[in-house]
Design brief:
It contains twelve helices and 14 strands. The protein has helices spanning about 15-20, 45-55, 100-115, 155-160, 225-230, 255-265, 280-285, 305-315, 345-350, 355, 360-370, 375-399, and strands at about 30, 55-60, 70-75, 80-85, 120-125, 140-145, 165-170, 185, 210-215, 235-240, 270, 290, 315-320, 335. Helix 2 packs across helix 12 (about 375-399).
């Protein structure tokens, strides 16, 4: 992981302040997440860890659980935030008037603040379904809504209505937003380096190894292309790394017919989920890394792939379906044309594989991932919040 000692030491205090490097010191941040704190780490988990490294006191609110009968909190570990748990709020709350919802959410925030030992300086909300109407700022002074997945841009207006800052991973997510665009920050996914220990990978099959990492129950996966690669190129061993039947409490899974076919193909290896710290070992053991989505088929208008930076950090060649937000990666990623199948690119890729995995290209991919670390992301957020605070103060002075 990135530690504070890795920051540049030759900046003046004024430059550090402007960059946001001292902004988080001592701030109490509540992160509201649709995914639980656990062994699998996504962007919201990385933001929590990085904020802690920069001096913030971080609290992480897990998804609401019917197993809980009261709000409770775990003690923070040196490298982990304090995790808050709560039972689901009032059933049917979304059908109540906005005024009533705002009062109920203010009361819920008051309860969370009491459990955490005091009010929060910032509510950093990754969950578009919680705290949509809260107006009272007594227990959470500033608000960020951070959007990772969005089916239609217009759906953002509700959650973003009372936010001070809206962060989107894809610019197109803000297309339907009524909030002024100066309150919007485009912040692509980041990459989190981690401590590396001796690899504990099992013995892998010989031959060309292709890897796919992620939640295999994701609806947008283009299974026809993945199965097409397996059947058309039997010399390639496909390693599917991730849960086949959902993750983060989602019990949906792969279509039974698809699962049966995956198990029947001899060159498809269903690895299952792997520990977070072992992900780099698995990716580096591959020859090719794959992203295969059918975004139009599931109605997604904009997406930004979190796994792409993990792939690039391995240095290995990446074959991807078309991703609008990553068109700038030409030369680092082999990307299909819009509507095209990744299967069509495999023949040329296999022919040119040694050149595509040449040391100089691997170094460029690793450098791109390293430049997009989470320390830089939270500094961008700090600079934006500082800038907005200055503008607000100037407007008040002119009034």
């Amino acid at each position: 992981m990135m530690h504070a000692s890795h920051k540049p030491t030759d900046r003046s205090d004024a430059t550090k302040a402007e960059a946001g490097m001292d902004y988080w010191q001592g701030r109490r941040v509540l992160i509201v997440s649709p995914e639980a704190w656990g062994p699998v780490r996504l962007s919201k988990h990385h933001y929590a860890s990085t904020l802690m490294e920069q001096g913030a006191q971080v609290f992480f609110l897990d998804p609401d659980s019917p197993k809980e009968n009261r709000i409770r909190i775990t003690a923070a570990a040196p490298d982990q935030p304090a995790v808050l748990f709560r039972p689901p709020p009032l059933r049917g709350m979304r059908f109540l008037s906005r005024v009533v919802r705002a009062k109920l959410e203010a009361y819920q925030m008051k309860q969370l603040a009491a459990a955490a030992g005091g009010p929060f300086d910032l509510l950093w909300n990754f969950d578009l379904h919680r705290f949509r109407s809260i107006e009272n700022r007594a227990h959470a002074l500033e608000r960020i809504v951070h959007v990772m997945d969005l089916r239609e841009p217009k759906e953002l207006n509700g959650p973003a209505g009372l936010a001070d800052l809206v962060i989107v991973v894809s610019p197109a997510m803000a297309d339907g937003l009524e909030k002024p665009q100066d309150r919007v920050l485009h912040l692509a996914h980041g990459w989190m380096p981690r401590k590396r220990e001796a690899s504990a990978l099992p013995a892998l099959s010989t031959g060309i190894k292709l890897g796919y990492l992620g939640n295999l129950a994701m609806r947008a996966i283009d299974w026809s292309s993945i199965i097409g690669i397996a059947t058309s190129f039997p010399e390639v061993q496909l390693h599917l790394i991730g849960p086949l039947h959902g993750a983060f409490g989602n019990d949906t899974g792969v279509d039974p017919a698809t699962e049966k076919l995956l198990n029947a193909l001899p060159n498809i290896k269903l690895i299952g989920p792997v520990p977070y710290d072992q992900v780099p070992d698995w990716l580096e053991a591959m020859d090719i890394l794959l992203i295969a989505y059918d975004l139009e088929g599931v109605g997604l208008k904009a997406t930004s792939s979190h796994k792409l930076l993990e792939y690039l950090a391995s240095g290995k060649v990446v074959l991807s379906s078309y991703l609008e937000d990553h068109r700038n990666l030409e030369g680092l990623v082999i990307m299909a044309r819009p509507g095209g199948s990744v299967t069509n690119y495999m023949k040329d890729l296999l022919r040119d594989l040694p050149a595509l995995n040449a040391p100089e290209l691997q170094a460029k991919r690793k450098a791109y991932a390293a430049a997009n670390n989470y320390a830089e992301k939270v500094e961008q957020v700090a600079r934006k919040l500082r800038s907005m605070a200055r503008v607000s103060s100037q407007l008040k002075d002119q009034a």
